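User: I'm curious whether this sequence folds into something compact or stays loose and floppy. Could you predict its structure so I can see for myself?
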Amino acid sequence: MRIGELADAVGVTTRTVRHYHHQGLLPEPERLANGYRTYTLRHAVVLARVRRLTELGLGLAEVRDVLADDAGKELTEVLQELDADLARQEAAIRERRARLRGLLDGGELPAEGPVSPELAALFAATPPLSGSPMAALDREVLALLETVAPPEERERMVSVLRGALGSPEAVARAHRAYALLDEVAEAEPDDPRVAEAGRALADCIPAEMVPEEGDVLDTGHGFLRALYADFAPAQARAVQLALWIASRGRWS
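Assistant: Here's the prediction. I'll summarize afterward.
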C-alpha cells in the first residue's frame, strides 16, 4: 500500500501517518527500488490500534508505552490510569458547575464578577458610592485578592470584611474615605486633604488586613508598586499614609 491508501484504509490523514512515524509509534516502511514506500498489513494493524487508543483519550506517550515490546505498561494499567484521570476530571467539572450554579442562582452578578458567592453577597450588602472611581477600584482589588489567595485566606478575608462593614456607620465611613480619595485625584501629594483622606481610609482598614509593618511603605514590593502606580500621586500618598497609620495601630 502507498501512504494514501494506508491512511484511507484506517481512516486517518497522511499527515497523521507521518506524525506517527516522527513520534516512533509507526515503523517506517521499506522503500521500493523506485523510492516509493510500501506499507504492509502489519502497518495498518498498528495504525488502527494507535487510532483506537488515541480515541480513548490516551496521549501519544501513553500509546508508546502500550505499544512497547519491553518495559512498557500493560494496556490494563494504562486504561485504569486513564479511567482514574477521567474520574478526577468529572469531579472537577461537577465542582465548577456547582460554583457556576451558585453564581447564577445568586441574582445579579456584580460588575467585578465572577466572584465567590460570599464576596458577591458582601458587595450586594454594601453598595458602592455611586460614581466613585476609588470605590470601583477597591472592589476590583478585592476581587483580585480573592482570586489569587488560597481558599482558607479567601474565607478569612471575606469574613473580616463582613465584620468590618457590618454596620451603617462603617459603610458611611468607607464612603467618606472614597469621596476624599476621589477628591484628591488632581491634587499635589503635599495637599492638606491628602492627610485627611489617609486618616479616613485608615479608619476603614481592618487590623487583620494590614500588611506586615516592614511592607507598608515598601514601594519595591511588586504588588504594592503596581497598586500605587494605578493611583494618582496624591491618592497613592494617601493610601501609603493610611497603611502606615493602620500598621502603627496594629504593631505598636
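Summary: The chain is about 65% helix and 0% strand. The first strand starts at residue 30 and ends at 31.
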